[in-house]
Amino acid sequence: MACRKGGSVFTLGVFAAMVDKFPLGAAMNKGLTIRGAQVHAQRYIPELLRRMEAGELVTEHLATHVMPLTEAPRGYQLFKDKDDGCVRAVFQP
After folding, report:
1. Strand-pair partners of 3
2. What H or E segment, with its residue span, contains residue 47?
């Protein structure tokens, strides 16, 4: 809905289920290009971890909710419902 007419939408990630509430009519009326791909983790993760270890890449802001592993069900529910501003729940063993 936020993409301009003739624009492109790219989805990166791993999706296993059907997607509902997708505004296909709006995408068609705007003439959007829609593409998607899997994450190329094996290629990029080693370099990202090296940069994190060297302090070149800051990631703390990505973990909006850090909690013990015992609270995982609550964390997944917060993420699913987007409650309390949850962007990513991180669990500590």
Report:
1. none
2. helix 41-53
**Number of neighbouring beta carbons within 10 Å of residue 51:** 13
Three-class secondary structure of residue 77 per DSSP: helix
Q: Report the distance separating Cα 88 and Cα 21, nearest Å.
A: 22
pLDDT tens digit sequence for 55-86: 999 988 889 999 999 999 999 999 999 899 99
Give the 3-state secondary structure of residue 55.
coil
Distance CA(83)–CA(75), nearest Å, equals 10
Alpha carbons 11 and 1: distance in angstroms, whole number: 14
Token representation of residue 72: 């995982």
Is the pTM for the entire model greater than 0.70? no
User: Whose structure tokens read 């290629």?
Assistant: 43
